[in-house]
Amino acid sequence: MVSLVCAASEVWSHSIAAENEEMGMSPSVLSAGGRVAASRPYTWPSCSAPFLSCGSDPQLPHPRFLSKRQSETFCKAEFSQWTASPVVFGYGFSQCISTFIPAKRVHLIPVNPIKEDGLNPKSRKRIMPDLLTEPPAIDPVYEAHVYCNIPTIAERSMEGYAPHYFKLASVQVLIRHGDRYPLYAIPKTKRPDIDCTLLPNRKPSHPQLEAFIKHMSKGSAAQMDGTLSSLPRYPSHSLCEMGELTQTGVVQHLRNGQLLRETYINKHKLLLNDWTAKQLYLETTGKSRTLQSALALLYTFLPDFDWKKINMRHQWSTIFCSGSCDCPMRNHYLEEEQRRQYSLRVKNNDLEKIYVDMAKIVGIPTRQLRASNPIDSLLCYFCHNVSFPCTKTGCIGMEHFKVIKRHQLEDERERQEKKLYFLYALLATHPLLNQTVNRFQRIAEGKKEEIFVLHSAHDVTLSPVLSALGITEARFPRFAARLVFELWQDGKRPKEHFIRILYNGADVTFQTSFCKDYYKRSSKPMCPLEKFVSFVKRDMFLVFNSTSYYDACHRRPL
C-alpha cells in the first residue's frame, strides 16, 4: 500500500501558516462563487503538515471518510483530473495545496513541460497555476466575472458528503434568481440588446433546455398561489423586459437542479420515484424571474415532474418574513445602514469624478445619473460581453465600470466592519431561519414534514442570511447563488441529528457563529442540530439584550 503524505513543501506550509496567523483567519478555499474558510485542518498519521480541504475542488471528500485504498484510488483519479483541468483556481488554492498523493514531493509548476499526444511542449499551458491566482488587492473585473457566474465550466460541490452511516433526512435550498436584464436604465443610452427567448442552439445552453421549454408549456395543472398563476413560466421576449430572466439565468438553474439531483436523488434517495406533493415545499416571490428560476431548478431536479404535484406558494416579502414582518428595529438598523452607505459614497472622490464624467457623456445632471444606479445596467453589458453604451459625446468605458464596481466592493467590506447590517440581518432573517429550525425539529422527532424545501428569492434575501449566520467571508450573492441546509440523522445514534450548511457548493458549516468552535472538540464534520436551534431560538437576540424576536424588534437600544 502506498503511504500518503502531504504534498506541500515545509517551507510553503510554514509561510502559509504564518500568513493565516497574520490575517487572523483559518485556511480558506474558493468555491464557485464565494470566498469561504476551510472547515478545519486535519492531520493524517503519515502527514507532517495539516490536511487542508482544497478550494480547487469543492467536491473533495472529507478525509475522515476515506480508507487508505479509497484514498489512493481517489488520489490517482482526482489529482490527474485537477492537473489537467483548464479551470483557473481561485484565492483558496494559494492557501491550500496539501492533498494525498503517493509518497513523494511534487513541484507546483513543472520544470520541464511534458510532451503529450505529440503536441509541442512550448505551446502547452502550465499543469498547475501560479499560487496566487486571485489578485491580493481588490480586482473589480475579477469580482464581476465571479458575480456573473457564466455557466461554462462544470461545477463541483460538497453537497451530500457525510460518513457512510449517516442518513440524509431533509434539504432546504435558498436560491437567488439567475442572470437577469437590468432593473434600471442609464438615461439617454441604448438599452443592452439582449434576446430573452430560449434557443437551445444558442450559448449558453443545456442538454435539457428544449425539454424544459416543452414541459413548461404544459404547466396549467400546477397550483400557483395568488398572482403567480398569471406569470409566464419561462422568458420569451425577443428584447428582454426590465428585470426579466435571460437564457443564461435559466441555464444557471438547470445546472443547479442537475447538480442537486445527482447528489440528493441519485445518491441519497431523498425523494423516491413515487414522491408526493406533501414532500415538497416550494415558495417564491412574486417576480417572474424568481418563479422561472425555481421551475428551471425543479425541472432538472425532478425531470418531467407531474404538474399536479406542484404547489408553488407566493411570498410577498423579499426577506420571507411571512406573518412576522412587524419589526420596527429592523427598519431602524436598515436606515442606519443606508446612512453609512451614503456617507461612504460622498467621501469617495474618485467615484464622484466618474459620475460627473459619465453624466457629461450621456448629457444629464450628475444627480440623475447617480439615481439611475448605473452599476446594475453596466453589469448586464459586462456579463453578456456587450460594449458599454456610447453617445455623440463619447463612450462609457471599462475605467468607469471598474471605479464603480470597486466602490461597491469597498462598501461590502466596510459593511462587515461597521456591524449595522449585521444587526439588521439578525432581525430580518429570524422568521425564515425559525421556519427552517421548526421544520428540522419536527423531522427529527419523526413527524411527517416536507423533506425538500425550495425558496426562490433575491440577493437581498440571501445576503442578510449569510450575515446573520456569521459567514462573513462569503461573497455577495452572485446570479443563481444557492445556500443549502442539510439535516442528517446519525445511523449509530438515531436520536442525534446534525446539520451542514453549504454556500455555492462549499461547506461553510464551521464558519457560522454558532458552530465555529464545535469542530475543535468533535470528530464529526457536522454541527449538532441543537446548536442551530439554540442560535435561532435564543442567541440571535443576545446582542439586543433581549430574549425573544418580538422584544428585540421593539426594544430601542440604550
UniProtKB/TrEMBL annotation:
Q: Which GO terms describe its cellular component?
A: Golgi apparatus; Golgi membrane
Spell out the Gene3D superfamilies in the cross-references: Phosphoglycerate mutase-like (3.40.50.1240)
Q: Which domain of life is it from?
A: Eukaryota
GO biological process annotation, one example: glycosaminoglycan biosynthetic process
Keywords of the record: Glycoprotein, Golgi apparatus, Hydrolase, Membrane, Signal-anchor, Transmembrane, Transmembrane helix
Question: Where does it live in the cell?
Answer: Golgi apparatus membrane
Q: How does it sit in the membrane?
A: Single-pass type II membrane protein
Q: Which reactions are catalysed by this chain?
A: 3-O-[beta-D-GlcA-(1->3)-beta-D-Gal-(1->3)-beta-D-Gal-(1->4)-beta-D-2-O-P-Xyl]-L-seryl-[protein] + H2O = 3-O-(beta-D-GlcA-(1->3)-beta-D-Gal-(1->3)-beta-D-Gal-(1->4)-beta-D-Xyl)-L-seryl-[protein] + phosphate
Primary site of residence: Golgi
The UniProt entry, under InterPro entries, shows: Acid_Pase_AS, His_Pase_clade-2, His_PPase_superfam, Histidine_acid_phosphatase
Q: Name one GO molecular function term.
A: phosphatase activity
PANTHER family named in the record = 2-PHOSPHOXYLOSE PHOSPHATASE 1, ACID PHOSPHATASE-RELATED
Family affiliation: Belongs to the histidine acid phosphatase family.
What is the protein's given name? Answer: 2-phosphoxylose phosphatase 1
Q: Which organism is it from?
A: Gallus gallus (Chicken)
